[in-house]
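User: what does the whole thing look like in 3D?
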Amino acid sequence: MKDVYILGIESSCDETSCSIVKNGTVELATSTSSQIDIHENFGGVVPEIASREHVKNITLVIEDCLKKANMKIEDVTAIAITYGPGLIGSLLVGMQAAKTLSYIYNKPLVPVHHIAGHIYANSLVEELKFPLIALVVSGGHTELIKMTDHFNFEKLGGTLDDAIGECYDKVARVMGLPYPGGPKLDKLSKEGKPTYKLPIPLNDDSYDFSFSGLKSAVINLNHNEEQKGKEINKADLAASFQKVAVTSIVSKTKKALKDYNINNLIVAGGVAANSILREALTDMCNENNIHLSIPPLKYCTDNAAMIASAGYYAYKLGRRADYHLNSLSTTALN
Amino acid sequence: MRVLYIDTSSDYLYSGIVVDDKLVSSIKKKYEKDLSKEALPKIIELFDEANITPKDLDKIIVVNGPGSFTGIRIGITIAKTIAWALNINITPISGLTAMAISSNTNTYKMPLIDARRGYVYGAIYDKDNNKVIEDSHIELKELLDKSKDLDIEVITNNDLEINIKKESYDPDILKIVKHFETSDGINPHLVNPIYLKKTEAEEKAGL
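Assistant: Here's the predicted 3D structure for the full assembly of 541 residues, as structure tokens:
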């Protein structure tokens, strides 16, 4: 069979990224311009600043990626683009570039949902085995999805309020950790013990999550200890928070795997980089004889390789868009 | 000489293709929220109508601001991507300059774009389109004060309260393109919007 090369473009938040992936599984090159340093000054991503950076960097990352892959766009089979969800001003920049490349080089344009991209990041490690449960954990999402085939998504449950990554960043902020706080909280928690009592969120029969109560509990605890003039042990608080948050995610995931009698679990999204979550999922899967796939750290955060990988399977399924394709800030996984 | 002109700095798509001093295809249409969806397909129609392909282009002229931040980025990203792919240069120009060039008045010219809360993006040009006051994000009152001794005509498509002679903006694409005919332009990687205004987050942070 002829090799398929997909050039993917991702610009849904604060990374301008371009990647070329062969046959959905082999990453040939990726070029990403990250804006973390810029947004750190503001304690979070500023949408207008993100958009301004994307337009500066978009042609540079495309050129750099092709150079790294030692390829020309003429050699590429199709162009895959994140159409949503995400920051609309950011999405638009990648979209215009992708549509224009598709037109100039007469290459098919393949629309890719950002979360599908996160899920297919796992294909860069090993081919997906169906049926599977995908646990998507990121700054904007906490979802359990059942897949019986490529691009066949059934959402089993999701967060009713804050996404897990959002909760991590907010808790980290209360504890005085600079943005992005999630990874720093993860690191700090290793120096502590889970000595503080925190409520287990939404311990019920659904596949849904809720993290705003847990977030408030941490904020209140922090505040109360301060009022009493007691020094809070930040490492212990981080460890206590992590334990409860991770337990909630792992128990709902385990329940979904058991209820549907599924033996494959894949993890996706930025919070998949969290070390405690990785450990807990690994233990749970070992105990229950579940095949677990977690992408390496570089594929957990936003990147275009995952878009190009998802783009390959979408391309094979005949998914195409015309030049009227538009970006969407919110859109259901498809 | 084959030139593509793109201006998406307002709610309108103003675009055209000039071949050997003739405007062979053009569009002036209001899109608002659909601009990101429609801009490229409409530009493709211009190529078809002009019976040329992007590969035939010698240059792109794009408006790099001021105006709608999102709008500017749409036009610039399309221009940058075409120019990068075809290895040609871009001449980025001010939308206010384009407004001045399009006007035939023999007085001084004050192109204005509403920037809300009493502010405008504005400038003053003489009758030969030389800048007298640079493009700025400025209080309308202040700009009017600066120009009170000049015989001046305002060019705007916005509903601004001004007691001097006004004309609406209808871009003369051929005239704009010819004005920049001799410009070599710059590498597309270097073309970026000129917003004339910091983001609110930067202003608050004092950056």
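In plain terms: Chain A has a mean pLDDT of 95. The two ends of chain A are 27 Å apart (CA to CA).
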